[in-house]
Design brief:
Elements (H helix, E strand, L loop, with lengths): L10 H13 L1 H14 L4 H4 L7 H15 L17 H5 L9 H21 L4 E4 L13 E5 L2 E3 L3 H11 L7 H15 L3 H5 L6 E5 L4 E5 L1 H6 L3 H10 L6 E6 L2 E5 L5 H15 L5
Antiparallel strand pairs: 1-2, 2-3, 4-5, 5-7, 6-7
Helix pairs in contact: 2-6, 4-6, 4-7, 4-8
């Protein structure tokens, strides 16, 4: 598709991608303000910089993403792709994908989240995602980091607008606010989310005709019914032939048309969304 994925970047390429991502933040927020104003909203009042403001802003973006739906063209045929924010061009998007207008909203929301998080956690830093485990899901991604925790800000919003675009259940404003509060706590080094940050939620290994999936050990033990819900929703996704659970934290996923990176991203974002806010 003409763009290098974060996962395949060298150290220097990832550093350049981080600077590109950071340079886009001001313009992203400016565009969001413009879009809100153009739809009769009041950006000064709506984007007041408080964590609580995340909820109504996200409710409006969710509604708009539902209206815009999906782009009828494939990723390879979409002529708007060169104008997308860098995280969308270098990330693993899949078809049918949200249109450029929706990705622009996610980019603006990313900038707004960055503003809120940097105000709430003064020692936070922009870094290239890194980890001692090669399978770390956000390796080479531009992340906001502090307290032993790293977060790729567009990840959860992108997952949710995919849900909206496909007519599925997106994150509500309340859920996005909970996610923001949980992220603040993790970046401050507080609570079980931060304590578990050293181990990825999920690992995915491509086998000959399937994927071997390992889930973090505490998920099944501490969150009753979570893995069962994950399996139910994953099985319902287009292209998933079957999901077999052969252990408390072990799955075999048959998905002939999926790639390892796509499955890893979907599982990681689903778990981030559905983990209880109290850890």
């Amino acid at each position: 598709m003409g763009e290098l994925l974060y996962e395949w970047m060298t150290e220097s390429q990832a550093a350049d991608a981080l600077e590109e991502f950071r340079a886009e933040r001001t313009a992203g927020l400016t565009r969001l303000r413009s879009v809100l104003d153009g739809h009769g909203r009041h950006p000064d009042a709506l984007l007041d910089g408080t964590p609580q403001s995340v909820a109504p802003v996200w409710e409006w973006i969710t509604a708009r993403a539902g209206e815009l739906g999906v782009d009828p063209r494939s990723l390879e045929e979409d002529p708007t792709r060169p104008s997308w924010p860098s995280w969308a061009r270098h990330g693993m998007l899949v078809d049918p994908h949200p249109p450029a207008g929706t990705l622009e909203l996610v980019d603006g929301f990313t900038s707004y989240l960055a503003q809120i998080l940097t105000a709430a956690v003064p020692d936070v830093q922009w870094l290239v995602g890194a980890h001692h485990l090669d399978d770390y899901p956000m390796r080479n991604y531009p992340v906001l980091a502090a307290g032993g925790h790293q977060v790729f800000l567009p990840g959860i919003p992108l997952y949710s607008v995919y849900q909206s675009a496909h007519g599925r259940d997106p994150m509500s404003g309340t859920e996005m606010l909970d996610h923001t509060r949980r992220t603040v706590a993790a970046l401050r080094g507080e609570g079980p989310v931060a304590e578990a940050a050293e181990e990825p939620l999920v690992t995915v290994v491509a086998e000959v005709d399937c994927f071997d999936v390992g889930l973090r050990a505490d998920l099944a033990a501490q969150h009753r019914g979570l893995v069962e819900r994950l399996i139910t929703e994953l099985t319902d996704r287009d292209g998933i032939t079957s999901v077999y659970r052969y252990g408390p934290e072990a799955l075999v996923v048959n998905a002939p048309d999926w790639e390892e990176i796509r499955l890893k991203l979907w599982l990681t974002l689903w778990l981030q969304r559905h983990l209880p806010t109290d850890g």
